[in-house]
């Protein structure tokens, strides 16, 4: 069951800036689609519009080809999981999972069988009689998933479901969600600001900025072929280098890169370079890559990598991520000049506010 969003706009005050503006995208059937963007991009508002908790000023929401824009929440048959779990503290795990089924007045035997099925699905069979306060954060989130899935929704909507959890539990639940999706094949829409989360478990990504869609496509398209300076700077933690078009190349201090064919002489250019797309060396450049010279401002070991801050002669700063063994072999200290090989960069022509 696919989700199609057509030109959605929502304002919370007359004449105010829209929280969501002219948003259109297609979430493919059977896939996990991530709504990815910084805080305030309009992701959660968009999810609320899709599930029916908000009504758009303009636009339509279609689920499996049916226009649901004017339908109340209970008639859309969508499962929703929030960051806060939203479990009933006075109810047991079984009672929480059964809540939506009892509201729909299903027969007791069917409710009990469905709850048993959901407990097995989320691997909490032994915890059915506990209350939410007796569970870990990860277990409470699984109960929230079970409650959303118990009604057999047409689609599953997830609003930052792992945001309140610590890193290890978040990573474990990320893998669990991937396995759950493999078993159920349920069309899923995931709101997240975590790039790794979106790129790791999604088949489709919609990047949002200021209430609009900045780019939509596969994780590979979003990462390898950013469509705008915003996407290039947001995805992958890229550093930005500023310069001008000179003799058909992007001239960025000691660095020169290929520019789009339509670039004109003297135009402003911005090159976005990710930390792992630069290789540091004391020797001459490797053939086939573009070198520049920078000075080590500071460096900090972070696990198996070292984050190095380079300052170029132009004053621009670039962050480089180097495997710890490679950095140790370089033998550099703060203040040393190093040669940097740019393996790849995204270059855009024009003046932009980054």
Condensed summary:
With 354 residues, the chain is α+β, with helices and mostly antiparallel strands. The protein contains ten helices and 20 strands.
Q: Would you give an account of this structure?
A:
The chain has helices at residues 43-51, 73-76, 93-103, 108-121, 137-150, 167-184, 195-201, 219-224, 229-234, 324-330, and strands at residues 3-10, 20-27, 32-36, 58-63, 66-67, 78-82, 155-159, 187-192, 204-209, 212-217, 239-246, 249-252, 255-258, 268-273, 278-281, 290-302, 305-311, 317-323, 337-342, 346-349. The protein folds into two domains: 3-232, Rossmann fold; 237-349, OB fold (Dihydrolipoamide Acetyltransferase, E2P) (Beta Barrel), CATH 2.40.50. It is globular and about 75 Å long. By secondary structure, the chain is an alpha+beta fold. Strand 11 (239-246) and strand 12 (249-252) form a beta hairpin. The chain contains ten helices and 20 strands. The mean pLDDT is 91. 27% of the residues lie in helices and 34% in strands. The strands form four sheets. Strands 6-7-8-3-9-10 form a six-stranded mixed sheet, sandwiched between helices. It has a five-stranded antiparallel sheet with strand order 13-12-11-14-20.
Any key phrases for this structure?
354 residues, Rossmann fold, 10 helices, 2 domains
The strand line-up of the biggest sheet is 6-7-8-3-9-10
User: How many domain regions?
Assistant: 2
Q: Which CATH first-tier class of the largest domain would you pick?
A: Alpha Beta
Number of strands: 20
Structural class: alpha+beta
- The CATH superfamily of the largest domain is P-loop containing nucleotide triphosphate hydrolases
- Summarize model confidence as the mean pLDDT: 91
Q: What is the makeup of the main sheet? A: 6 strands, mixed
Number of helices: 10
Distance between the termini: 38 Å
Q: What is the helical fraction, as a range of percent?
A: 25-40%
Please trace the helix and strand order, writing H or E for each element: EEEHEEHEHHHEHEHEEHHEEEEEEEEHEE
CATH architectural label of the largest domain: 3-Layer(aba) Sandwich
- Percentage of residues in strands: 25-35%
Evaluate the radius of gyration. Answer: 24 Å
Residue windows where pLDDT falls under 50 for at least 5 positions? none
User: What is the CATH T-level topology of the largest domain?
Assistant: Rossmann fold
The geometry reads as: globular
């Amino acid at each position: 069951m696919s989700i199609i969003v057509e030109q959605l706009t929502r304002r919370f005050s007359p004449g105010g800036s829209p929280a969501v503006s002219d948003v259109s995208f297609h979430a493919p059937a059977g896939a996990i689609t991530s709504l990815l963007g910084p805080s305030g991009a309009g992701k959660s508002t968009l999810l609320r519009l899709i599930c029916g908790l908000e009504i758009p000023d303009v636009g339509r929401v279609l689920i499996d080809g049916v226009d649901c824009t004017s339908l109340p929440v209970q008639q859309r048959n969508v499962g929703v999981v929030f960051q806060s779990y939203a479990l009933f503290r006075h109810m047991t795990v079984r009672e929480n999972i059964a809540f939506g089924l009892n509201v729909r007045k299903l027969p007791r035997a069917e409710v009990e069988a469905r709850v048993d099925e959901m407990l097995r699905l989320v691997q909490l069979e032994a915890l059915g009689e506990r209350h939410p306060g007796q569970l870990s954060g990860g277990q409470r989130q699984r109960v929230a998933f079970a409650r959303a899935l118990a009604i057999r929704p047409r689609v599953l909507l997830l609003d930052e479901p792992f945001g309140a959890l610590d890193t290890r539990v978040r990573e474990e639940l990320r893998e669990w969600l991937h396995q759950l999706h493999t078993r159920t094949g349920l069309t899923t829409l995931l709101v997240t600001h975590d790039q790794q989360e979106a790129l790791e478990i999604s088949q489709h990504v919609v990047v949002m900025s200021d209430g609009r869609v900045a780019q939509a496509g596969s994780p590979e398209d979003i990462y390898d072929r950013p469509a705008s300076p915003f996407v290039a700077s947001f995805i992958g933690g890229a550093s930005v280098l500023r310069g001008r078009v000179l003799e058909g190349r992007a001239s960025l201090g000691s660095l020169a890169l290929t520019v789009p064919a339509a670039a004109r002489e003297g135009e402003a250019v911005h090159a976005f370079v990710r930390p792992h797309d630069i290789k540091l060396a004391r020797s001459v450049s490797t053939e086939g890559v573009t070198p520049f010279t920078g000075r080590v401002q500071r460096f900090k070991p972070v696990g198996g990598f070292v984050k190095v801050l380079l300052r170029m002669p132009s004053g621009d700063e670039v962050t480089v991520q180097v495997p710890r063994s490679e950095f140790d072999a370089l033998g550099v200290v703060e203040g040393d000049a190093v040669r940097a090989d740019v393996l790849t960069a995204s270059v855009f022509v024009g003046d932009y506010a980054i």
